[in-house]
């Protein structure tokens, strides 16, 4: 058994002793309203420590350090990443919001920051990772606990707490960790049994199972429905929960129970995984890729099956709900529809909410959880006929998540939170379906009525099936037009028309970089602050490979979409509410072949992982005056470039305190001598030890805001050669 990882942080606080983990269960999320600010501060403080300790307790289920580095799921990082990720998230978001100015461990904060959802720019090549030890991560978590504890105790607080308030960021970190409480439990469930051990708390699975009840369809009344919540809602929410969505739902029928393992067995026995007709194109590709024959938590046992709970294999509980991904759920519904002659499918998000209306109370006001949710009953699923609700239904909430047919998208009025701009927008791609209702491990915001979460359709969570009999759905089209104003401006800037005779800026910078490297090796290039990706594509015309990195997931989604689809549609503003529709095409720009040699990733230019090294060219356009610590960037960039390699920097030197604190500006002020100190002079001073200055020139660019408003700017492009002995 590994040493305990549940001891709290170093702060000498009364609550900071070794917690009784059982006492941490059944905790409800915190209302952000009220009349007593100090009582609310104490409530959030307790909620933070409860969450932090509960999350750490989960990792006590791992049997030794080796289990932290095993990857049972190759689309996820090993558990050592998730063990530290949630605490890194807290520090990063408090820093991004400008609420603290504290960095504890650059290696951990770089390595454990990004990599949650499987996206095309995730780099899951494990040979690049020198993971920290569990003990190092625990020490880091202890430091974070102390810092956040002190922040909660001393920050300004007004009620109600809104999403621009300091404690909103703390709640963001808390609820983010409660998401990973569940997703990490899923990863532990996928580990080999010899890497986990039973646990007095997490091993308390439901002891009951028996014959599965026969499912049936029950009526659900339709009607007009308005989804989405306003910002005066008293509970923390993610950006996609806000806004308004109105719909009219026709009467339908829904299955009385979640689909049990026994009900799903008939699909397996009938050749469900071998019959192409039951599967979507995406689903059949997944079946073929995985060679899937039955659900992931079924364990073949002779002619039958056993069942993998989180920490042990048990006899198959046939009356528990089946755990499947969305593709399996959809295939099951097609099979059942064919067998019964009924119009059966998964519910839509709107239909599920009509069913959810039968549960009038929400999580914070429950006297006891009405279903198997919030860790209030079991550390596993339980029989599908255990928890009854109104209308004759069971498990309207809890037990396992219920997949819907609805790909997630923003409601009308959607806007991102400035501290977490990539929580939802990367999932608005038609590839992530919403699931509803929560599961036994869903806590905090995960368990409230308005929570909206989505996963890729091939991902497995604690998720299952409730089917409905309803009219067929019309063919769903994904909104392929990028309407985010900032993102659309960048697409137009890099791929759109040239204005007033000024050449395309990305192309001009690429040409300048190629001219500066004429006759030199062109093996690898690094594009920092790549934004919408055009410069990376242009460099790949001549370089063998290009790595392109940007801090914003919203921006790097553009070039990854271009790589996958060949084109990207977007909207540009003309005037007021009038817009024009545009299309960026790799084929039109003759970049199709070059695009194959570019790898896009999310990252922080001031805190690059060590694997990004050995480049013949590093280029950073319009970036240096947007970095929070530009000198930190300059002091390390030589380590990423081969001797004799080239560094290209461009910037209009628009120093602003909102991006770079005044004391971190490189230039643009009076020096101690009283003379002007320019940024180029500062660059020469900062880079002199390792680089020779080559040249500097102005490169103009024009940024379109509307049809009648443009920004004309001069960016100074400087070229530097790394010294062969430096």
Please identify the oligomeric state.
single chain
Q: Mind telling me which CATH architecture of the largest domain this is?
A: 3-Layer(aba) Sandwich
Q: Residue share in helices?
A: 25-40%
CATH class (first level) name of the largest domain = Alpha Beta
Distance, first to last CA: 49 Å
Per DSSP, what share of the residues sits in E-state strands of 2 or more residues?
15-25%
Q: Number of folding domains?
A: 3
What is the CATH topology of the largest domain? Rossmann fold
Strand order of the largest sheet: 19-16-15-20-21-25-24
Dominant shape: globular
The average pLDDT value, as a whole number, equals: 91
Query: Helices and strands: which structural class?
Result: alpha/beta
Runs in which pLDDT lies below 50 for 5 or more consecutive residues are 1-18, 116-124
CATH 4th-level superfamily of the largest domain: Vaccinia Virus protein VP39
What's the total helix number?
Answer: 17
Largest sheet: 7 strands, mixed
Beta strand count: 25
Tell me the radius of gyration.
27 Å
Model description:
The chain is α/β, with parallel strands linked by helices. It folds into 3 domains: 21-195, Four Helix Bundle (Hemerythrin (Met), subunit A) (Up-down Bundle), CATH 1.20.120.450; 217-256 and 320-471, paralog of FGE (formylglycine-generating enzyme) (Alpha-Beta Complex), CATH 3.90.1580.10; 484-722, Vaccinia Virus protein VP39 (Rossmann fold, 3-Layer(aba) Sandwich), CATH 3.40.50.150. A 7-stranded mixed beta sheet has the order 19-16-15-20-21-25-24. α16 (630-636) links the parallel β20 (615-621) and β21. It is globular and about 80 Å long. The protein starts with 20 loop residues before the first helix and ends with a strand. 46% of the residues are buried.
């Amino acid at each position: 058994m590994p040493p305990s990882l549940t001891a709290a942080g170093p702060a000498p606080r009364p609550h900071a002793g070794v917690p009784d983990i059982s006492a941490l269960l059944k905790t409800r999320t915190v209302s952000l309203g009220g009349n007593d600010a100090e009582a609310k501060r104490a409530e959030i403080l307790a909620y933070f420590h409860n969450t932090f300790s509960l999350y750490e307790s989960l990792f006590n289920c791992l049997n030794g350090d080796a289990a932290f580095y095993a990857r049972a799921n190759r689309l996820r990082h090993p558990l050592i990443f998730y063990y530290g990720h949630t605490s890194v998230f807290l520090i990063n978001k408090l820093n991004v919001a400008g609420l603290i100015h504290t960095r504890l461990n650059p290696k951990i904060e770089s390595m454990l920051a990004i990599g949650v959802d499987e996206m095309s720019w995730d780099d899951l090549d494990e040979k690049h990772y020198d993971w920290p030890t569990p003990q190092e991560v625990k020490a880091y978590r202890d430091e974070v606990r102390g810092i956040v504890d002190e922040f909660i105790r001393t920050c300004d607080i007004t009620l109600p707490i809104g999403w621009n308030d300091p404690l909103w960021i703390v709640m963001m970190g808390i609820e983010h960790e409660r998401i990973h409480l569940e997703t990490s439990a899923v990863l532990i469930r996928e580990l080999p049994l010899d890497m986990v051990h039973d646990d007095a708390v997490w091993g308390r699975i439901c002891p009951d199972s028996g014959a599965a009840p026969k499912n049936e369809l029950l009526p659900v009344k339709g009607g007009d429905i308005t989804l989405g919540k306003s910002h005066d809602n008293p509970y923390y929410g993610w950006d996609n929960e806000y806004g308004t969505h109105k719909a009219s739902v026709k009467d339908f029928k829904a299955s009385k129970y979640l689909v049990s393992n026994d009900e799903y067995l008939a699909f397996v026995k009938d050749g469900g995984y071998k019959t192409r007709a039951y599967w979507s194109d995406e689903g059949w590709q997944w079946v073929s890729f995985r060679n899937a024959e039955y659900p992931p938590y079924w364990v073949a046992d002779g002619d039958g099956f056993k069942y993998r709970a989180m920490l042990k294999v048990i006899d198959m509980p046939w009356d528990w709900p089946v755990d499947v991904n969305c593709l399996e759920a959809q295939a099951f519904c097609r099979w059942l529809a064919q067998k019964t002659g009924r119009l059966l499918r998964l519910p839509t998000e709107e239909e599920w909410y009509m069913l959810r209306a039968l549960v009038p109370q929400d999580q914070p006001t429950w006297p006891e959880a009405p279903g198997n949710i919030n860790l209030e009953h079991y550390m596993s699923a339980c029989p599908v006929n255990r928890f009854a609700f109104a209308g004759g239904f069971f498990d309207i909430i809890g037990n396992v998540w219920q997949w819907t047919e609805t790909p997630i998208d923003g409601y009308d009025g959607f806007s991102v939170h400035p501290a977490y701009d990539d929580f939802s927008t990367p999932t608005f791609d038609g590839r992530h379906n919403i699931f509803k209702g929560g599961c036994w491990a869903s806590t905090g915001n995960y368990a409230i009525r308005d929570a909206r979460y989505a996963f890729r359709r091939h991902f497995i969570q604690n998720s299952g099936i409730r089917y409905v009999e309803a009219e067929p759905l019309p063919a769903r089209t994904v909104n392929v037009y990028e309407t985010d104003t900032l993102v659309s401006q960048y697409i137009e800037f890099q791929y759109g028309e040239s204005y007033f005779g000024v050449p395309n800026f990305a192309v001009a910078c690429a040409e300048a970089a190629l001219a500066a490297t004429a006759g030199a090796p062109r093996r690898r290039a690094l594009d920092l602050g790549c934004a919408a990706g055009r410069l990376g594509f242009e460099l790949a015309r001549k370089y063998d490979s290009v790595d392109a990195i940007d801090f914003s997931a919203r921006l790097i989604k553009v070039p990854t979409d271009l790589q996958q689809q060949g084109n990207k549609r977007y909207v540009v503003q003309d005037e007021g509410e009038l817009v024009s529709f545009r299309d960026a095409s790799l084929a039109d720009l003759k970049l199709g072949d070059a695009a194959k040699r570019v790898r896009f990733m999310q990252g922080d230019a001031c805190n690059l992982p060590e694997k990004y090294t050995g480049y013949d060219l590093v280029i950073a356009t319009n970036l240096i005056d947007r970095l929070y610590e530009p000198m930190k960037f300059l002091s390390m960039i030589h380590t990423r470039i081969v001797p004799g390699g080239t560094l290209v920097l461009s910037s209009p030197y628009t120093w602003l305190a909102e991006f770079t604190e005044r004391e971190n500006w490189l230039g643009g002020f009076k020096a101690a001598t009283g003379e002007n100190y320019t940024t180029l002079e500062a660059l020469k001073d900062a880079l002199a030890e390792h680089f020779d200055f080559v040249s500097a020139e102005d490169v103009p660019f024009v940024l379109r805001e509307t049809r009648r408003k443009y920004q004309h700017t001069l960016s100074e492009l400087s070229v530097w050669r790394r010294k062969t002995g430096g």
